């Protein structure tokens, strides 16, 4: 690249005293890192119990209510993500549409977010079944529409 | 409902659109630095004049219905007020905007004695005429804006101004200018209103850009559409109080880019799903009512566009056309014939696509603006117009509420 365009590499935000940072755009999880972690522990334990009893719908509702988000809560996020993955794996394909119907819009958006999160981890060595994720994604999009995907893409409160 | 009127004004997107006072004239910018003025012919719109003063893309146009003045704003950081000479020519007057980024939106106030310009410079310039110097001067609303202002709308009292920004917020400000505005009557938004008073700040639920803001005809409710596919309504409780209610309708469709209230209890939103949809107060509060452009009920494109240009089929720049589909089918499935319509079994909120790969909706690309076109005698909006990135202008009937299931729809049928 010639010098003519070198100015494009200048970080103009560094010269701006009032630059808008990504952290300004999103409020942190109100529970704080510790609160989010203990909450996530409790929920993931309860979820595992419900799954072993065969109550998939209840387990999914529990884990998708107030999931941890934002920075500094990685452990809580990992716990929740693996609990969601457990539910996804233990659901029979025929039951998926009914389970999805039982979720409210907020929970559907959270579920979509976890589907994408798990998809992004595909091939990283973790044991994630891609076909199961795709089945869930298909059923969820049928029910919640493309608007649900747009909300997940837009939301800066990353799960 | 009678069929909408469709006009192909340009091959590319229409970036700014405004109708003249009696709806026989139309100012549009075809995605460049010129504004074209058309007048209504028998079947189509005829180009009258072209206003060329801007250096860069015109982002918005507003036409004052009573004083017959046009204001254009552009990415060149300028705005011009155009007045018509007795000879019919339009004469520009520069506005001192004093902004260092592109102007994004402009709107005349209801009394037409001032206008507001939103910009990428984290500021709204409220402009009024300075008799002494014979030019337009501006006052800036800066705090607490921290990002580009995408849309503005005036409250009917000529003082309050709503704005939507890219940091997912909608604001209500006072744009009171001493010497022009009389002291306004107290409203639900506030009673003391010096310039730059913040009367409200609202956040989009999932943090999407706020694409458009609008007041209801009374000005007592604020609506905004955001990029998280939501339509939001704010009911203020009074000065300094948190709002009575902040209602969010999450839709299964792609996000809306524009909204317009047709009454206190209904609005029309349009955007990336290419069809204007009506939201209204139903039994459960605000909810989706119906689409003005229902491809399912109108059959396979019974709405034939009247093209003013040479092309009548589709706008350019779309990947989803017949040729593209043909090659895609050949590539992925070895088929040499176009695939059949894939309308059934599609996900909720998807815009239906016909057998030829064209959308079954009238607009073939995102709708960028929806505004009232005609009012009924009772003061409700009877017709709206939409413009889109497909270069089409469409005028829709909104009267009559066909949402009541089949009987309502059947009433519109002609046998």
UniProtKB/TrEMBL annotation, chain A:
It is found in: Cytoplasm, Cytoskeleton. Keywords: Cytoplasm, Cytoskeleton. GO terms for cellular component: Arp2/3 protein complex. It comes from the Eukaryota. The keyword Ribonucleoprotein does not apply. One of its GO terms (molecular function) is methyltransferase activity. InterPro entries: ARPC5 (IPR006789), ARPC5_sf (IPR036743), DNA_methylase_N6_adenine_CS (IPR002052). One of its GO terms (biological process) is actin cortical patch organization. Its main location: cytoplasm. Residues 23-44 are annotated as: Disordered. The keyword Protein biosynthesis does not apply. Functions as component of the Arp2/3 complex which is involved in regulation of actin polymerization and together with an activating nucleation-promoting factor (NPF) mediates the formation of branched actin networks. Arp2/3 complex plays a critical role in the control of cell morphogenesis via the modulation of cell polarity development. Functions as a component of the Arp2/3 complex which is involved in regulation of actin polymerization and together with an activating nucleation-promoting factor (NPF) mediates the formation of branched actin networks. Belongs to the ARPC5 family. This is Actin-related protein 2/3 complex subunit 5.
From TrEMBL, chain B:
Signal peptide: none annotated. InterPro entries: ARPC1 (IPR017383), WD40/YVTN_repeat-like_dom_sf (IPR015943), WD40_repeat_dom_sf (IPR036322), WD40_rpt (IPR001680). Its main location: cytoplasm. WD repeats lie at residues 51-82. Residues 293-318 are annotated as: Disordered. Keywords: Actin-binding, Cytoplasm, Cytoskeleton, Repeat, WD repeat. It is found in: Cytoplasm, Cytoskeleton. One of its GO terms (cellular component) is Arp2/3 protein complex. Residues 297-313 have a biased composition (Polar residues). GO terms for biological process: Arp2/3 complex-mediated actin nucleation. Transmembrane segments: none annotated. The keyword Cytoplasm applies. Belongs to the WD repeat ARPC1 family. This is Arp2/3 complex 41 kDa subunit. It comes from Apiotrichum porosum.
